[in-house]
Amino acid sequence: MTAAPLWTTDTAEDATGGRCSAPFNATGVAIDSRAVKPGDLFVALKGPNFDGHDFVAQAIAEGAAAAMVNEDWAGAGGSALPILIVEDTMKALEDLAAYKRSKTDAKIIGVTGSVGKTGTKESLSRALDQIGETHRTIGNLNNHIGLPLTLARLPETARFAVLEMGMNHAGEIEELSNLARPDVAIITTVEPVHLEFFNSVEGIADAKAEIFSGMGAHGVAILNRDNPHFERLNRHADAASIARVLSFGKSEEADIQLTDHSLHEACSSAKVTICGQEIDYCIGAPGFHWVMNSVGVLGIIKALGEDPVAASTTFADVRAAKGRGAFRKIERDDGTAFSLIDESYNASPASVRAAIAVLGRSKPKDGATRIAVLGDMLELGEASEALHESLAKDLMAAEIDRVFCCGPLMKALWEKLPPVMRGVYGSSSGDIADEVQAAVSSGDIVMVKGSLGSKMSVIIDALENTAALRRAAE
Questions:
Q1: pTM for the full model?
Q2: Given pLDDT bands bounded at 50, 70 and 90, which one contains residue 73?
Q3: Is residue 183 within 8 Å of 218, Cβ to Cβ?
Q4: Where are the alpha helices (DSSP H) in 140-208?
Q5: Phi then psi dihedrals of residue 399, to 5 deg
Q6: Same domain, 277 and 214
Q7: Which residues are CB-contacts of 101 (< 8 A; sequence separation ≥ 6)?
Q8: Which domain holds residue 31?
Q9: Are residues 236 and 295 in the same domain?
Q10: Looking at residue 78, what is its pLDDT?
Q11: 242-252: per-residue pLDDT in tens?
Q12: What pLDDT is attached to residue 81?
């Protein structure tokens, strides 16, 4: 069956004010020529390190239905592809997004917070999928390019759209919210991340509260009642004339209250009370952070007027994604095996503590060990040394057997650890890849975590594949 057009010549011209060289129907939108699918509208964005106009020919070869280009692009007149000519392609991408938002009947849910954004987005999307067609942010497309791209891809048939919103500077979420105009917005939590760009955690809370700016009086805000910045966020919601605030957490004052929970090696369980109704459910991922994600999701479901009980049944199928806590068994050529907790995508003090807690609850067999491999947590500013050092007490409390550290910032933690816990320290992930791979014995459980810039994927590759280890060391 042929996919319905997402964009036509007429709608694209109406949205952008551009002009088309020839008629087209596009079934998707792409900004990366390597990811173009047949029928896509390829948007040639011009950035500091690349120019999408250089890849229009590649997009044509991949089957693009049309290309959106700047009016000063020299190839506009000679392209074999229908061309949508606009003044500025980045602005035009935002125009496509705004047009879709103005036409859709879908309920828009905005998701932000210092940690837990992606887990909440995925858990919520899974729950909403059982109710109706749900559009969502793919991967980590949560910034000034990713969000308008996600909206530009919004099908007319969608009943819900779950949009993740990230930031590391003040003002960024305000722009995203004004474009998305969420009906419901959740701030999962506020923690000390991106402190390099903020004077305080309170400043981070203020930046997260920018999500209310695009909502208006009809909106519903979902806030973490246990977070010390709840009242500050609540005041922001009130100042934005948000119609309703629902809170979630362990607090007795929470509207969606976590009354009991149990954490296990490979899963979790929770008991939640919503307006006097008790719900018991299981979560297919380990860790208290996943429990709290689920409670926040139930708040969103309640705000949408849907059934929290039905939504809770979907949590059993939740799994941590690659780089975000995925658990897998690695079998070696010699027949031995160990377990890997892949947290390599990103890191903050709160998320590292959560990962350490999960590792601490794991149960190696036959005298095997728990091993943590940690890379730098970036963008923490003047508090960086103290925040890295503070992880030592969490590692000791969780009874982690050996800790490998890499990166100049992790040196502070390394020096704080008892000598008996130290594995190897290196200035980069590549410097310790050999040592980590050699140190892992059969039955061990290894957790790898660090900020994206720490390149902890080098360690993951080394553990998964001896050939990858050799390449990393070259």
A1: 0.92
A2: confident
A3: yes
A4: 146-152, 172-180, 201-208
A5: 60, 45
A6: yes
A7: 108, 151, 154, 179, 180, 181
A8: 7-93
A9: yes
A10: 62
A11: 989 999 999 99
A12: 84
